[in-house]
Specification:
Strand content: 5-15%
Strand order of the largest sheet: 5-6-7-8-9-10-11-12
Helix content: 40-55%
CATH superfamily: Aldolase class I
CATH topology: TIM Barrel
Number of domains: 1
Shape: globular
Structural class: alpha/beta
CATH architecture: Alpha-Beta Barrel
Radius of gyration: 21 Å
Number of helices: 17
Largest sheet: 8 strands, parallel, barrel
Number of strands: 12
C-alpha cells in the first residue's frame, strides 16, 4: 500500500497507541475479566502506553496465561536450540542503510494469488486459540481483518472454517494435516473450498511429533476443546502426541500432494521446507508456493533458523513461485530482512497469540500494526520506498563486514 510521507508520520503516531488489555484465559470455560468493561478500575492510558512493542505483549501474555497454555505456546522441541536460533539469527543480520534517498511515498503492497495485500505480513496457522481467549479463532479473525492481514486457519482450530471465513475481510487460507482416512481428508478440503478459502497450506514437516518436553511436563491436553476439523475420537485425547498419532498421515509423499491438488481449485502450498532440494522438487511439481518453516522450532531441534535457510530456498526457486517464511519474527526489521532474503511475505505465529492473550481482537490488530509500522520505518531508514527495492543489498554480508572492519584504523575503532 502506498503511504505518503505525511501519512506515514501520522500512522506512526496512531500506532503508538496500543490496545487496552483484558485478561486472557487458559481454558474455554473462563470469561473475560472485568478489565474490559467501562467500570474497570484499570487506567486505559497507563495500559496502552506500556504496550508499544511485541515484547511488551509477549511479557503480558506470559503473565496472564495458565501454565499449561503458556508452556504450549512458548515451548519448543528438545533443548529449544532452534527456538533460540530463530530469534538470534535475525539479531545477527546487520542492516545497511542508504541516506538521502528521494522517498516520496512508501509502497508496502504485495500481490499473492491475485489478491493485493496492503503489506507483506500474514498470520500463520496456530492451534487451539481458545487456550488463549474464550472466543478463540473468531476473535483472531476479527483482529486480523481490522488490521487488513491475511489469516491461515489451522486444522487444529477450535472454530470451524464455516464460521471463520465469513468474518474474514481478506481471503482466508486453510492449513491441512493429511490424515490416514483419505475420505475425511477429502471432506476437509471440500469444506475449506466451499467456505471460500483461497489457498490450502499443507504441513509437510511433521512425519512424527517432536520431543516437546515443556508440554509433557505441563501435562498439555486438548481435552475439553472442540476440534471440528479432526475426527471426533481425536478431540477426546489427553496427550497431544496421541492426537497427532491418530490423525497425521506419516507416509505422506509428493504423490499425495499431487492427489490433493486434484481435489481442489484452491492454490496449494506446502509448509515446512528447509532444504533447497525440496524447494527444487516443488518447482518441478508446479506447486503454487512454499513456506520456509521449522514449525516454530516445535518439531526437530537443531535444524537451522528459517531466516538462515531462506536465501538458499529462494535461490533454488528462482522466482518460479512465492516463497513465504515464518519463525521468530518480532520486529519490523525482521520483516525487512526476510524480504531482503527473497521472501514474498512473512508469517507471524506466537506474536499474534501474544496479542490475543493480552486483549483479544484488539491485541491481534495492534500486534500486526506495530510490525507494519516498524517495517515502514525500516524501509524509510534504509532508503527503500517499495518492496521491489528491497534486496540483499539492504544487509551487510559477512564478506562486506570483514572488508569494512579491515579498512578501519585502530584510532577509528575507539
Amino acid at each position: 500500500m502506498a503511504v505518503s510521507r505525511r501519512g506515514f508520520v501520522q500512522g506512526l503516531v496512531t500506532t503508538a497507541v496500543a490496545a487496552t488489555a483484558v485478561p486472557a484465559v487458559g481454558s474455554a470455560e473462563e470469561k473475560p475479566a472485568a478489565a474490559a468493561s467501562p467500570k474497570s478500575k484499570a487506567s486505559p492510558l497507563s495500559i496502552q502506553s506500556s504496550l508499544v512493542a511485541i515484547t511488551d505483549y509477549e511479557e503480558t501474555a506470559r503473565q496472564r496465561l495458565k501454565p499449561m497454555a503458556r508452556e504450549y505456546i512458548f515451548g519448543g522441541a528438545g533443548d529449544e536450540i532452534t527456538l533460540r536460533w530463530n530469534r538470534e539469527a535475525y539479531d545477527r543480520i546487520q542492516l545497511k542503510p542508504r541516506v538521502l534517498a528521494n522517498l516520496q511515498q512508501l509502497n508496502t503492497s504485495v500481490n499473492l494469488f491475485g489478491t493485493e495485500l496492503p503489506f507483506p505480513i500474514f498470520l500463520c496457522p496456530t492451534a487451539a486459540h481458545r487456550l488463549v481467549h474464550p472466543a478463540g479463532e473468531m476473535e483472531t479473525i476479527r483482529g486480523a481483518s481490522s488490521a487488513r492481514a491475511l489469516m491461515t486457519l489451522s486444522s487444529f482450530s477450535n472454530t470451524p472454517v464455516e464460521q471463520v471465513a465469513p468474518a474474514a475481510k481478506l481471503p482466508l487460507w486453510f492449513q491441512l494435516y493429511v490424515q490416514p482416512d483419505r475420505g475425511f481428508t477429502r471432506e476437509q478440503v471440500r469444506r475449506a473450498e466451499a467456505a471460500g478459502c483461497q489457498a490450502l497450506v499443507v504441513t509437510v514437516d511433521t512425519a512424527v511429533p517432536g520431543a516437546r518436553n515443556r508440554e509433557a511436563r505441563a501435562g498439555f491436553t486438548y481435552a475439553g476443546l472442540p476440534l471440528p476439523h479432526l475426527p471426533p475420537s481425536a478431540s477426546q485425547s489427553n496427550i497431544e502426541a496421541d492426537v497427532l498419532a491418530r490423525v497425521l498421515s506419516f507416509n505422506l509423499t509428493w504423490k499425495d500432494i499431487g492427489w490433493l491438488r486434484s481435489l481442489t481449485k484452491m492454490h496449494v502450498l506446502i509448509k515446512g521446507v528447509l532444504d533447497p532440494a525440496d524447494a527444487g522438487i516443488a518447482v518441478r511439481e508446479k506447486l503454487d508456493g512454499i513456506i520456509v518453516s521449522n514449525h516454530g522450532a516445535r518439531n526437530l531441534d537443531t535444524v537451522p533458523a528459517t531466516i538462515d535457510a531462506l536465501p538458499r530456498i529462494t535461490d533454488a526457486v528462482g522466482g518460479a513461485m512465492p516463497v513465504l517464511v515464518d519463525g521468530g519474527v518480532r520486529r519490523g526489521t525482521d520483516v525487512l530482512k526476510a524480504i531482503a532474503m527473497g521472501a514474498t511475505a512473512v508469517g507471524i505465529g506466537r506474536a499474534y497469540l501474544f496479542g490475543l492473550a493480552t486483549s483479544g481482537a484488539q491485541g491481534v490488530e495492534q500486534v500486526v500494526n506495530i510490525l507494519r509500522s516498524e517495517f515502514e520505518m525500516a524501509m524509510a531508514l534504509t532508503g527503500r520506498d517499495s518492496l521491489k527495492e528491497i534486496d540483499r543489498s539492504v544487509v551487510w554480508t559477512t564478506c562486506q563486514l570483514e572488508k569494512a572492519n579491515a579498512a578501519i584504523t585502530p584510532d577509528e575503532h575507539r
